[in-house]
Amino acid sequence: MSVFENDGSYPGNVCASTTHAHHNGLEDSQWKQYAQIQGLYKWMRSQGIYMNVPDFYINSGTNKTGIGYREVNWSLPRARQLVLGRQNLYDGLWKTIPSMSWTFVPLTEYHGGGEAATLEPLKDHLVEYEGHMMQNYGSGVQACYRGPRLYDTPETKAVVAKVIKWYKQYRNILNSDIIHLKKTFGKGLGRFFTR
To answer: What is the pLDDT of residues 86-98, one digit of tens each?
Structure first.
């Protein structure tokens, strides 16, 4: 195994048992669980395993963490998703460099929203799809693409290929430290990717 992707290692639960082998009671149960998870990730890092893990384990050896978003926001209309995506990039890149973060692109319906929130069929929403890719790659952040395919027509494939080629050409600068200028609020230049 050379890659480990785990969604759910957050040690949020507490346990009041005084007979479990790995903690003494309620007061230390959450901390002991966190310490065990940290130990696992540190060991995996020592083995050269690449880890894509949410939450606050980036300082325990994981390679990538979520940039920070609310999953239900991906049920909003496509244009609103783009504005929120840019805001997530702006807010999330204060704590990590771009290559340490991932974000999200919902190709199919995710948490509701119906057709207005969905990129599929991709050929019918190329402006928004390219907008997602450009703002993410342009910030040096990779995304988790939720859907069965990255393209559905030759035209869609050409857009994906164009963005990837552009990203690869400028990857060194796009993956470096960034300077925060102004947060987008969906007005002015922030409306570039909407119809």
So the answer is: 999 999 888 888 8
Alpha carbon 4 to its chain's center: 15
Q: In what order do the strands lie in the sheet with 65-66?
A: 65-66, 101-106, 142-146
Give the span between the Cα atoms of 61 and 35, in whole angstroms.
Answer: 13
Residue 69: pLDDT above 50? yes
Instruction: Return the HEC string of 30-69.
Output: HHHHHHHHHHHHHHHHHCCCEEECCCCCHHHCCCEEECCC
Nearest to 93 by CA among 183, 194, 193: 183
Q: What 8-state DSSP symbol labels residue 193?
A: T
Q: Residue 80, SS3?
A: helix
| DSSP state, residue 5 | E
